[in-house]
Amino acid sequence: MKQNQYPKVKKYFTSPRLLVILTSVFVVVFIGLSKEIIKQYQIKKSVDQLNEQAQILESENKKLAKLLDLLNTGFNQEKESRMKLGLQKPGEKLVILSSLTNNTFLNQQQSINGKEEKGILSKWWSMFFGNNKD
Fold first, then answer.
1. Which of 6, 35, 75, 111 is spaced 20 to 30 A from 62 at the CA atom?
2. pTM to 2 decimals?
């Protein structure tokens, strides 16, 4: 008697329609989960790349900060003012050595720039007396 009690229910669970429906649902859920897993992996990968890039930029920033501190010291400022502006301490004598290769290089650079470079005395004169023709 128990076997005949639920024949419709047994027939429904063993029907091919239910198998097709359950398989379709399983495939749809599997595809959705796969897409989400792939998306999460790509996001994690891009976040890791951005973190690496941030670390590189931070290390470059630290190097530049050290370089800036070094350049802001009095010794480097004095060195640059001596090299670029021709400044000297009292009692020092300035000796300028020029060679043929340096003069040739300067002439080529001046012809490339299209204007002649002013000497240090004319630069100082321009700075103090206002003849700015740069």
1. 75
2. 0.43
The two structure tokens encoding residue 100: 């043929």
Question: Angle between the 16-71 and 74-85 helix axes, to the nearest 10 degrees?
Answer: 70
Instruction: Give pLDDT tens digits for 11-30.
Output: 777 788 888 999 999 999 99
Q: Which of 79, 81, 78 is nearest to 120 (CA)?
A: 81
Token pair 């630290």: residue:
62
Are 85 and 119 within 8 A, CB to CB? Answer: no
* 3-state per-residue secondary structure call for 52-116: HHHHHHHHHHHHHHHHHHHHCCHHHHHHHHHHHHCCCCCCCCCCCCCCHHHHHHHHHHHHHHCCC
What end-to-end distance do the CA atoms of the chain give, in Å?
113
Angle at 44 between CA 43 and CA 47, to 5 degrees: 85
Chain-centre distance of CA 35, in angstroms? 32
Distance CA 125, CA 112 (A): 25
Q: Give the whole-angstrom CA distance, residue 123 versus residue 85.
A: 9
